[in-house]
Structure formats: C-alpha cells, structure tokens
Amino acid sequence: MLKKVMIFCFLITTTIFAKVYWYGYYETEFDNIGLPKEKLYTNYHKFRLDMDVSPSNNIRIAGNIIYKHFEGATKYNYMNFLDEYYHTLRLEDESPLFVGGTPMVINNRTYELKDTLFFDNIFLELHHKYFDLILGKQQLPTGSGYAWNPTDIFNKKDIFDPTYENRGVNALQLRIPIGTRYNLIGIIQPGKDYDNTTQYYEMKGWLGSFDVAFSYARTEYNPASVYELIGMSKNPAVIRDVGGFNMEGELLGLGLRTEIAVNRLNQDNDNLKYEYIIGADYTFRNSLYLLGEYYHNDFGSEVDQTRLIDYMHYFNYTVKSLNQNYAFGMLQYPLTDLIDISLSSIANLDDESIAINPRLVYRIYQDVELNFIGTYFYGEDNRDEFGYQDYMARVRLRAYF
Amino acid sequence: MRKLLIISIVLSTFLYGEKMTGKRLLDKAIDVMNPEDSKATLIQTIQTTTGETRTLKYESYSAEEGKYTLMRYQEPARVRGNALMMKNYANDIWMYNRRTRRVRKLASHAKRQNFEGSDFTYEDMGTGDSWKEDYDPENQGKETIDNTECYHLSCTPKENADVAYSKMVVWLRTSDYYPVLIDYYKDGKLFKKLLIKNIENIEGHPTARKMVMKNVQENSQTIMEYEDITYNVDLDKSYFTERRLRR
User: Fold this and answer.
1) Between residues A389 and A208, which one has the greater pLDDT?
2) Does B101 contact A139 at a Cβ distance shorter than 8 Å?
3) What residue in A sits closest to B54 (Cα-Cα)?
C-alpha cells in the first residue's frame, strides 16, 4: 500500500512541473536452463517507466519505476546447480551443522523469483558552479573493467551479461571538478551506524591518452545471509578498506585498461587481498571488435578447496568470482546495419572450465531490439565451475518508448 | 625596369590565377568546413539495407575548428540522453550511457565503428584537421559538378598512415573551396559517396544543410540534415569536460 502511495505521489508531483520527459521500455525474456537432471523454463515481463524533469538549469529530478512479473519456474534450488559433491559439508569449519564427524548433507536451498514493483532510481541532482550534488537512489558505476570491476563496491554484475543495467544505490554523491581535467568524487551510502555506512572517494583525471583514477572505499563486508544458509546464524561483520586504481586509454593504437583493488579486512595489514584486471581491446578496419581481460581475485577459493560456502558467497555476490583466476574474451561484429553478432567466453583458469556465449542482436524496428543469447558450459569434471550445468538460452525482446 | 617586372608579376597573377597546390586546396577546404565553433541540431535518416528508415536526432557542439566535439542523442528513445565527446580530432573519445551513468574512455580505434548503424563512421564525423596529416592531396584540375565549377582533389594516404580509406576524391567549389562531393575508396574500389547539398551562407559560413552518404557496396544510405545551426557561440575547450558529458 505504502509503495502504491509513493508511486502515486511520485507521478503527481513530477507532472506538475512544466516539462517532464517520460520514457522507458518494456522487456520480456524467455530463459531455458539445461541442468543434468532437469530443464527449467522461466519468463519475465519487465516494464520500466522513467521520468526526467529540470525545473531550472541547475536542478534535475529523475527516477524510474520497475514492475517485473515472473512466469514459469520461479522457485530455484541452488543445490540443483551444483554437483552432489558440494551438497555434503565435510569440515567443521564449514558449518556448525557438521557435528561429531557426521557429514551434513544439504539438498535444498531455494530462491524464489517474486513479482516486484520498486523505484530503481530516484534522485535529485543539484549543479553549482563548483560542484554537482546527487542525492537519492542512483546509478554508481565505478571501475574500468568490462567483465569485472574489482573497485566497484556498489553493484552486482552478471558475468554473462556484463552491460545489463544495475540496480540503483541509495547514496549521496558529491562531484567537484578541478580544472577541466580532474574530478574529486565523494559518495556516502548511509547505513544504520558509522560502521555500516559505506564511504567512497575518488580522484579521477585525464593524463595523456589515459583516464586515471585513484580511489579509497570503506565498507562493511557482511556475508551473514550466506552463512545462514549453512546454519551459521551469526557472523561478525568485517570492515573492509579498499584502495583502488583505475586506468583506461590507449597505447600504440591498442585500447588498454587496468583496475586494481587492494582490500584490507579489519585493519589487518598482514593479510591484504588483491583483485585486479588487465585488459585490452581493438577495432579492426572491418569493424570487428576484440576485447580480452584477465581477472585475479584473492577472495576466490583455491581450486581444490572449493566448498559449498564458496558457491554461496558467489551466488550472493559477496565475492565476485568463485575461484581466483579468469579470462574473458569477446569478438563483436556488425553483420549488417541491423544485426550485430558476438561471441564471448569466460574461462576459469584454475579448474580449466569454460562458458561460451554466442549472441545476436537484431534491431527489428527503430526502438525494438531482439537478443538471442546462448551459453554453453564445458568442464571436464562436474565439480568444475562450468562443468555441471549444460547450457542456458535466453531470448530477450526490448521495446523502448 | 624594376617597375615593369613588378607590373608583369601582378598582371600574370590576375591572368592565370593563384597556383593552387593540392595541399593548399585541402587546407582551404578544411578551414571552410570547420568554423571556429558551432552549435547544431542534426537529423540523420538511415535507409537500411532492407529498405526501412531509421531516424537519429542529436545536438552537436564543436569548438576550435572541430578539434573538440560533443554530441548528445535526442532520438530515438533507445539512445536518448547518451552522449559522445571527442577531443583532438576524435583521437580521444568518451562515451556516456545515460541509463547506467557510466563514462567510458575509448581508444581511438573505436572511431572506426559506424555511428549508431548509419553510413557515417565516428571518424567521418570528427576527424577534421587530421586529413592534413594522413593524406597527400593532389590537385587534378577543374571539373564541373552539377553546373558548379570545382577543383578535383585526389587524396592518397601517406605511408604508414592509419586511415579508413585507400583513397578519397574531393570536389571543391572554386568559388569558396567548399566540398560538394566526396568519393571514398576502400581497397581501390569505390565504397561510399558523400553528396553535399543545399549549401547556404549562414552567419557568414557556407553550410551544407543536407549531406547524403551512400554506401555503394551495401546499397544503404544516410541523410544528415541540420535542423538548426549557429556559429560564434563562444565555446572553448573548457566546455568539453566529463562534467558536461554527464549533463
């Protein structure tokens, strides 16, 4: 009820302004997931309505509401996505459910897709001669990587669809331009207390052919919900300091990017965790585009020590990868003026499994796009990250208005 | 005797005209095509290979004779609000996505991609002065194009120049050096033709209100028209910042 009142107020208050831009899109997606023991079919309808109004040159109010309706298989059992090896808890440090040497078997941990109606973004933007202030639920993209963003502490990225839009983040963002080349950025994401409040600071500039940014973030690393899945009701929150470096630009005609995050947990300097990407891209004269990225993540598990808890962390995005070393490659080519094709692959370099994603984008009409996205998983062992699931196929239609 | 020599030189200059080398012609064409600064709204109508039409509308800001450019899409809805900033004649490119609010620095090779599915590449739209560095122009004499006397200028890439075309042939009006037709060749074959039409004098600058890029190999074409344009808008490089790109 409260949500409906909020939406009603949002629509009324925004339309009283003289010039409100309304736009958005309708999207529907059909997913078919092939697992060794079953096939899942899911379909969703998503309606996004955006508004944008500028009462003056220095003020902007913008936001969007999303309604999402699911059909088909809406209840997922995480365990069906994992080889049975991972269903058994074998070590005491893995869970208190492991008692007295008896292995605990978990076969059912469900996740349900529910119909939702929510404000994805709604923010006020104030522009002053010396700064820009953005207050409210907003997009906070950070990092230069394409497939992974080690310095991004705000967003969850789908590795199989890395450019898909992110959810808005409740935050206050201050951007101070320094000359024409540099920007100082401060972001506060309020929490219930100081420890629970996320802070992010970035100094970004343009040097030669490169955009360069140094950042510092302080956030709470609290994977309690993950531990609850295996019977640990309480897990102390950890304060995470993240020092970041980003660079993207060009060297000898090749596009280069790097992103480095140095993580310190609970101010322990002796146990720093490193995450980084190194990537390059190139467009040939015939418009063929190539991109490659290597990702290392100290938070990922060692390949022979991967356990259920590591998958739970990954599914819940408290870590950005299951294991430690990955490679991403992509080829993209405009087949005609209406059709783009691409082939991307994500390789887990630790267990040597791979996911291959062919994709076709067909712009049927000016504002209507049809996407065919496939994923084929290959790994020699069912215990490999991409070794258990067979395939995934998506058909997505999006119509803008 | 000295006076006679001076008179002879002045007279011969009047009689035979200024000797126009290819380089001088290209310099003059680039000067006349790239006024100091401008602000415009453009409409691109793309006739696709399947015969359908798609329309793009965007506003464009330009400074320092095309060295700095900022373009922001107004239509279609799919890309509305997205923006592109090019500095140093499109050698530095930033792209802004309004939905994700992400600004990406692109390497200069990205300019080889087509501009939103049109027959113009980013390179066609933002290179300006770089023609001088990349091509050797040669004056091939005068020809008449659509009843207009033109210089015929043939531009071949310099050795090791990283350019999109194996040759460009440009016809410039003899009256003001404004181009009326450009043929683009790839691998020695005619690839695209740019027909420059409806040339009007706006605020003292010859301006083509309509340009048609025909891809003769793929049988598609894109028409680019100015909905409005104004010059001397007092833009300088300080306008072209990430802050501006995001607004």
Assistant:
1) A389
2) yes
3) A366
